[in-house]
C-alpha cells in the first residue's frame, strides 16, 4: 500500500491543545498535531522562536501537552542535544526528544547548531516545518524561499523579479552530514507524515524531517485552500516526498507523483506570491522543477 493510501492510526489523547493563536488554515498546526499524535506523552520538545512558538506558548498559557522548552532562534538543536545528554545520564533513553523550528531557524539561523547535533550523534528528531519564509517576523525571504516568490525582502515589481535564488537543498545537506534518517513530508499526506515520524523515532541517532506547510498570509491564498495548495505542490513536482533511511541507503520517493500530474502553472497561479510572474518566467520555473524531479528519479534508481 502506498504511503498516500495509509489510514491514520487511532488517537486517544490530543497533545496539541485547542486555543492556540495560529492563523486560520495554518499548515504548521496541522503538522504539529499529527507529529505529537505519533510521539505521544513521553516526549520533550525544544522549540525555536517561530510561528509555532509565538502561537502556542504565550505566557501564562500553553497549547503543549508535553514538556516544552522555548529557546532562541539559533539554538534549538543545541538545547535538544543537552536534554538528550541529560536524559542519557539518568538512564532515560526511551524519551523522545524533538526539535521544532521553521525554515528560517533551520536553513539559516539554526543550521550551525543542527550541524553540531548531527555530528555528535545525538538521539534527537529535528523537524522543520517549511513555510518558505520568515513568516513570524514579517514574511522575509529565507533560503527556503522558492525561486521567483515574492517576500517583503524579495519584492516584485517593475524593477524586481522576486526571489532570485533557488531553495537550499537542506535534506541533501543533512544527509551528507551523516543523519540516520532524512525525510520530507507534507500536511496534505498526514499518513505519510505519521509513518515517517514513527520510523524516525524508532531509529537511534540524529534524524531530520522537512514538512511542507503552506502559510496563507505569506503565500497569499484563501485559508480554506491550505491542503489543496499543499497537495498541488507535490502533484506538480514542486515538493517531492521522499526518505533516506541512512547515509549509505537508497533514496526512496514515498508518494510517487510526476510533474505531469498537475500543472506547475496552476500551482503558481493559485498563490499571490507568484502573481507577478510572466508566462516566460513560469516556463523557466517549470524547467527547474522538471530538472529537479529528474535528479530525484536518478537518485532513486541508482541509490
Short description, anyone?
By secondary structure, this protein is α/β, with parallel strands linked by helices. It contains eleven helices and ten strands.
Helices and strands in order:
Layout: H1 27-39, E1 43-48, H2 51-56, E2 68-71, H3 76-89, E3 96-102, H4 104-108, H5 111-120, E4 125-130, E5 156-157, E6 160-161, H6 170-177, E7 181-186, H7 190-201, E8 207-212, H8 216-219, H9 226-235, E9 242-244, E10 251-253, H10 264-269, H11 279-302
Parallel strand pairs: 1-2, 1-3, 3-4, 4-8, 7-8
Antiparallel strand pairs: 5-6, 7-9, 9-10
Protein architecture, described:
It is a single chain. The protein is an alpha/beta fold and 303 residues long. It has a single domain (10-302), classed as Rossmann fold. The protein contains eleven helices and ten strands. The protein has helices spanning 27-39, 51-56, 76-89, 104-108, 111-120, 170-177, 190-201, 216-219, 226-235, 264-269, 279-302, and strands spanning 43-48, 68-71, 96-102, 125-130, 156-157, 160-161, 181-186, 207-212, 242-244, 251-253. The chain has an eight-stranded mixed β-sheet with strand order 2-1-3-4-8-7-9-10, with helices on both faces. The longest helix has 24 residues, at 279-302. The radius of gyration is 18 Å and the shape is globular. The two termini are 22 Å apart. The model has no long low-confidence stretch (mean pLDDT 92).
Amino acid at each position: 500500500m502506498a504511503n498516500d493510501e495509509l489510514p491514520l492510526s487511532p488517537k486517544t489523547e490530543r497533545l496539541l491543545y485547542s486555543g492556540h493563536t495560529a492563523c486560520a488554515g495554518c499548515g504548521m498546526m496541522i503538522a504539529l498535531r499529527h507529529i505529537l499524535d505519533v510521539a505521544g506523552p513521553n516526549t520533550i520538545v525544544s522549540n525555536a522562536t517561530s510561528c509555532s512558538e509565538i502561537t502556542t506558548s504565550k505566557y501564562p498559557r500553553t497549547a503543549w501537552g508535553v514538556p516544552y522548552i522555548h529557546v532562541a532562534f539559533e539554538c534549538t538543536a543545541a538545547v535538544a542535544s543537552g536534554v538528550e545528554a541529560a536524559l542519557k545520564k539518568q538512564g532515560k533513553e526511551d524519551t523522545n526528544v524533538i526539535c521544532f523550528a521553521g525554515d528560517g531557524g533551520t536553513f539559516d539561523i539554526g543550521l550551525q547548531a543542527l550541524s553540531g547535533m548531527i555530528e555528535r550523534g545525538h538521539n534527537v528528531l529535528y523537524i522543520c516545518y517549511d513555510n518558505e519564509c520568515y513568516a513570524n517576523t514579517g514574511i522575509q525571504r529565507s533560503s527556503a524561499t522558492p525561486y521567483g516568490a515574492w517576500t517583503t525582502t524579495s519584492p516584485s515589481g517593475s524593477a524586481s523579479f522576486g526571489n532570485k535564488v533557488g531553495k537550499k537543498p537542506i535534506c541533501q545537506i543533512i544527509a551528507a552530514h551523516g543523519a540516520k534518517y532524512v525525510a520530507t513530508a507534507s500536511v496534505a499526506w498526514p499518513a505519510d507524515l505519521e509513518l515517517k515520524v514513527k520510523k524516525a523515532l524508532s531509529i537511534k541517532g540524529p534524524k531530520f524531517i522537512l514538512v511542507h506547510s503552506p502559510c496563507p498570509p505569506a503565500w497569499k491564498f484563501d485559508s480554506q485552500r491550505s491542503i489543496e495548495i499543499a497537495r498541488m505542490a507535490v502533484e506538480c513536482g514542486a515538493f517531492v516526498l521522499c526518505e533516506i533511511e541512512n547515509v549509505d541507503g537508497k533514496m526512496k520517493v514515498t508518494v510517487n507523483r510526476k510533474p505531469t500530474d498537475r500543472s506547475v502553472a496552476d500551482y503558481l497561479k493559485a498563490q499571490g506570491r507568484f502573481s507577478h510572474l510572466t508566462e516566460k518566467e513560469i516556463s523557466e520555473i517549470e524547467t527547474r522543477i522538471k530538472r529537479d524531479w529528474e535528479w530525484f528519479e536518478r537518485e532513486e534508481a541508482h541509490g
